[in-house]
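The pair is listed for reference:
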Amino acid sequence: MPPPVVDVLPDEYVPARMDAAWLATLTDDTSWRAPSHAVPTPPPFRHLDTRTLADAGTAPLFDLEHAHTAWFYNIGHEVSDAHVNPAPMTAEQFYDFNLDRAVLDTHEKRAIAHRGNLLRLWPAHSDVTGEYSLVCAPTPQHPSQMFPVDGLIVSLSATDLPAVVRDVIVASARMNTTVLLARKIDRDYPS
């Protein structure tokens, strides 16, 4: 009897490369950058306009160059650019930004991997320990789709940093793309 699911990998599949001993030493204070960090730029997300929040400075979500970690926001399937000088949102900013009062999540960028290689790991800025998420790059528009897929935010079941970094490296290899690891740090700002 064959297995119920046949795991078909793309022709360009490159196995994930990681050092288990190094992964085990990761903490929230760890900062790391790959010696060579050239990576194709993912298609841009149709980004969420964060209005006055963006005044402190933003970068593309998959950018590797900012020195410290960054925060980004999502409502449904829309995500904002990365805010490189993160600070808690005031009630006034929240009501200016989130006009329809939808559920707003704040995430902290922690790592980026591309095709099985970890490119960047940022130390935590927030001490809030929310769930980790995997953010996949948007897909190009296909004839069967009305609109491009704006990317995918998937909650990860692992709770410790070494495990989620390993998962992100493997996911980037299996999907043959760039993925971002983030940690949810806030939801539904107080009024």
About this structure: The first helix runs from residue 20 to 24. The chain has three helices and ten strands.
